[in-house]
């Protein structure tokens, strides 16, 4: 935790507990925090008049230098969502697979950033319709986690919310623009291979999925044949990894005539290395792009299995072969 840096957004009429509780709790864990303002003022007042001074403005920083964002509630989100620099930080942080935490009315900023489509979200019940109309699934529960988005309904949920925030960093995705983590996999010939030997010198799109037995996988894995062919024509490869045994994968692949390889990670070590271990030791649905030099260029959770509809996926795929 000592090397982590978190942005906490600040604007007028912020909810005091939802700002100061996370800030102080993160400092206890050795996390560097920055209060990020919109630039509209040098000092902001909370709903109860408690002042907070921004340390930087949203337009002066980049998401690459931080590991996540926390957005307190109150009336502040109604101001925050009006600033393009705030929205850009949220979009980029989300696309990089980093933490997005929002409390109370905070998810309204995520709505403006258009990152909740297909996501399970909670928040103040007053924004339920806004969440649904933006394509999210409103969950009437105190704290909800969906991939790298953590949301909570209000101040009373801060203890559980912050446990989830801290827990997120015990299993976080590798940083973009860094070498991908090494891992061992079983291939269709039942041989143990290094992931690096599969993607060496080749641009690759790497998919993690939960299990062949899941309803989403039954359909999505077949649909990826077209995507795999497109990536192959560009000079890259598409591959998919799950914790299923290679025998199950091989039978499934042959029966449905998949045009790309499936790899088995029965130990779960590669799944953990990429920070996508989910419930029951299964992998979460997530996609990564690795350039021909072995550098991670894109990562995103895709719980619905629809890779091509993810924010930035097509744009990043187009540039993947230029590195």
- Average predicted confidence as pLDDT: 92
Tell me about the largest β-sheet: 7 strands, mixed
**How many domains comprise the coordinates?**
2
Note the total helix count: 11
Q: Assign the CATH class of the largest domain.
A: Alpha Beta
How are the strands ordered across the major sheet?
5-2-1-6-7-11-10
CATH topology of the largest domain: Rossmann fold
Helix/strand/pairing category: alpha/beta
Report strand %.
15-25%
Please give the number of β-strands. Answer: 18
Cα-to-Cα separation, first versus last residue: 31 Å
Query: Can you identify the CATH superfamily of the largest domain?
Result: Class I glutamine amidotransferase (GATase) domain
Written as H for each helix and E for each strand, in order along the chain, the element string is EHEEEEEHHEHEHEEEHEEHEHEHEHEEH
Uncertain segments are none
So what's the overall shape? elongated
What is the CATH architecture assignment of the largest domain? 3-Layer(aba) Sandwich
Helix content: 25-40%
Q: Measured on Cα atoms, how large is the radius of gyration?
A: 20 Å
Domain Thioredoxin: 174-322
Pfam families: AhpC-TSA (PF00578), DJ-1_PfpI (PF01965)
Keywords: Glycosidase, Hydrolase, Protease
GO molecular function: antioxidant activity; hydrolase activity, acting on glycosyl bonds; oxidoreductase activity; peptidase activity
